[in-house]
Design a protein that fits this description.
Structural class: alpha+beta
Number of strands: 9
Order of helices and strands: EHEEEEEEEHHEHHHHHHHHHH
CATH architecture of the largest domain: Sandwich
Helix content: 40-55%
Strand order of the largest sheet: 2-8-4-6-9
Shape: elongated
Radius of gyration: 24 Å
CATH class of the largest domain: Mainly Beta
CATH topology of the largest domain: Jelly Rolls
Strand content: 5-15%
Oligomer: single chain
Distance between the termini: 61 Å
């Protein structure tokens, strides 16, 4: 039977890792070298209900997703959102001389009434898999850790009416820098990304060549991302950076092009074409086709 451990609060996270009580109930920065785990996390599924930004030092144990090749090796940032499940494999590091990792953790309640709460979902990297982590240059790491020090400074002193706003502002700025650094990473991995775009297109063509659409319906982003060993969010962001279109937009355009070809080169009914492309209802096919072309399938057929 799988073992689960749920972390619902900053205090609980501190207790589980053998740390003193937090200085702030809703936010904390902890260093891996200080961990004295009160729980044996090895092989346990941890359900974390906090937002976390974690710097994984090269000497750390591995999470179950593993890693791909590094662009930069000064540190690797991993992001997790509330409700995600991770498994830690290997001993938790406690040697101050060999580990420089840290974790910024904050509870959703910290930002609930702030502007950050309205935009937190825009930071799509919170839904990336661990092997899609952000690999930092030395300068980028310095920028992140300077902001981290500001956050620590704010919650370590006597709290006043400005404290929470300043903590949140620095967290938001840190996440904005991470967005910039991810854009840099997409750019520096351009050759690899082009290969992935080609593989995505091949998987899409293969889906229809094998007639899976007739049996399983329209291909979705989750299916294609799994075939490429990517998370849906990362695949969509990668495609957007490389081509200007999301994964869902690519799927729709591919389906429409196939529909156009079939409409002009066969006498099949509109309903039959829709079913063969994976639409459960003909009306859904007609609606998508018209939204992308400006014509209904029958109008398009009669124009050519």
């Amino acid at each position: 039977m799988d073992q689960y451990f749920t972390i619902d609060s900053i205090s609980q996270a501190h207790q589980a890792t053998g740390l003193p009580a937090p200085k702030h109930p809703l936010v904390s920065v902890v260093y891996s070298k200080d961990f004295q785990p009160a729980v044996d996390f090895n092989g346990i599924k941890v359900i974390n209900n906090l937002y976390q930004v974690t710097l994984k030092d090269l000497g750390c144990g591995n999470l179950t997703y593993g890693r791909n090749a590094y662009d930069y090796e000064n540190g690797t940032l991993v992001f997790t959102a509330p409700g995600q499940v991770t498994v830690f494999e290997g001993e938790m590091p406690t040697d101050a001389t060999s580990n420089k990792g840290w974790t910024l953790a904050f509870h959703p309640d910290l930002i609930r009434k702030s502007n950050l709460a309205q935009k937190i979902d825009q930071y799509s990297f919170f839904n990336y898999d661990v092997h899609e982590a952000l690999h930092l240059s030395a300068q980028e790491l310095t920028t992140i850790e300077q902001l981290l020090e500001k956050i620590i400074e704010e919650y370590s002193q006597n709290l006043d009416k400005h404290s929470q706003n300043l903590i949140i502002a620095n967290i938001e700025l840190l996440l904005d820098y991470c967005t910039r650094f991810y854009d840099r990473q997409f750019y520096t991995r351009s050759n690899l990304n082009v290969d992935l775009v080609s593989k995505f297109e091949r998987e899409l063509k293969g889906y229809y060549a094998s007639e899976m659409a007739s049996e399983h319906g329209l291909p979705n982003v989750q299916y294609l991302a799994a075939k490429l060993n990517l998370s849906p969010k990362y695949l969509s962001d990668l495609l957007k950076k490389e081509t200007g279109k999301t994964a869902q937009e690519h799927i729709h355009l591919f389906v429409i092009e196939k529909a156009k070809s079939t409409l002009l080169n066969s006498s099949q009914s509109i309903s039959s074409i829709g079913y063969s492309l994976g639409f459960e209802y003909p009306q859904h096919f007609s609606n998508l086709f018209k939204s992308k072309t400006g014509f209904s399938p029958s109008e398009y057929r009669s124009l050519n």
